[in-house]
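user: can you give me the structure for this one chain? tokens are fine.
assistant: on it. calling the predictor now.
[tool input]
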Amino acid sequence: MAEQPPVSEKHSVSLDNGVSEPNGQEESGQISVASDASIASGAYSSVMPDGRIRCEVCPRFCQLRDGQRGLCFVRARQGDNIVLTTYGRSSGFCVDPIEKKPLNHFLPGTPVLSFGTAGCNLACKFCQNWDISKSQQMARLADEASPQQLAAAAIEVGARSIAYTYNDPVIFLEYAMDVAAAAHEVGVQSVAVTAGYVCDGPRRAFFDQMDAANVDLKAFTEKFYHKICGGSLAPVLDTLLYLRHETNVWFEITNLLIPGENDSPSEIEAMSNWLVDNLGSDIPVHFTAFHPEYRMLEHDKTPAGTLTQARDIAISAGLNYVYTGNVVDKVGGSTYCPGCGEQVIGRDWYQLGEWNLDAQSCCLGCGTWIAGVFEEKPDNWGRKRLPIKIKTKTSL
């Protein structure tokens, strides 16, 4: 299940460095005037022989005439430029447990300030956040914040990191990268929750600003990506290879298992073998449960036994850290030492329990190093989810 944006009552975070109010007049299919604070110049494009401009952020390569938007909805052509139309605007801000991203090996127990915008560059029929990822109305983006405001808000609420989530941040990479830069200036880290469907140039620029990521590997067949997601598997594998071999970004992988679509033992085994052979044994993998949503309402939800079977297959293939998600499963949610097999981090949903790591992130039982980004002691944010409202000088 994808993360859900905040919907409950919000707590205010008052900040003094206000920004101008967006004009809020944009209609579906139209481009706001250039003076709109939510418009930012985009990069990664080229001019086609027929005069169209090709967006080269993702492998869709949308070719746009003036006034047209790409499939993602948020990147559009304005004159001779590709622009991002949602800079500084969000579908909401929320403080979550880092384990909800999900990231089990990155600063366990800490709070993370999460936000997203609108639109998506894939067309997944099972999308859990379809109301924002498929949104064609800018009114869905009711909240706003500058990069500096978001960094300040993270400090104020005690968040150790900021997560770009709910929809894919590669489509609003200019905004996400600016937020990440501002966050780094005040010691706050950045987390990308992404499908990894991005071209090489923007991939390098985007992840250069990220400290951690969770990559949604939706399946391990081109057929599934084409039929269910309207995309391709190969660019996602390229992203995984890039992260592993050319960056220091800590990343984990999520695989949502949909009954009858991508949950066969043979596909899970093939995927697990590829991960071990190409990324190594220490990449954490989360098998999570599907529930019927959007255009796949006729499908059954994923049985817990399917997740357990997938976990067993992945461990047998040589992966050291394999988890189950979207189900109550203390065994499948906990971390075990690959050396001695003892539990080193206990978890009940997002709540941390037993902690058997020393100051060097090694198992107290046998001394085996546990891969990840750990502190000497975990934080204790727990399961809390706190929607917040960032107040600016212009907020009413």
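assistant: here you go. Residues 89-388 form a domain with the TIM Barrel fold (CATH 3.20.20.70). The longest helix spans residues 265-279.
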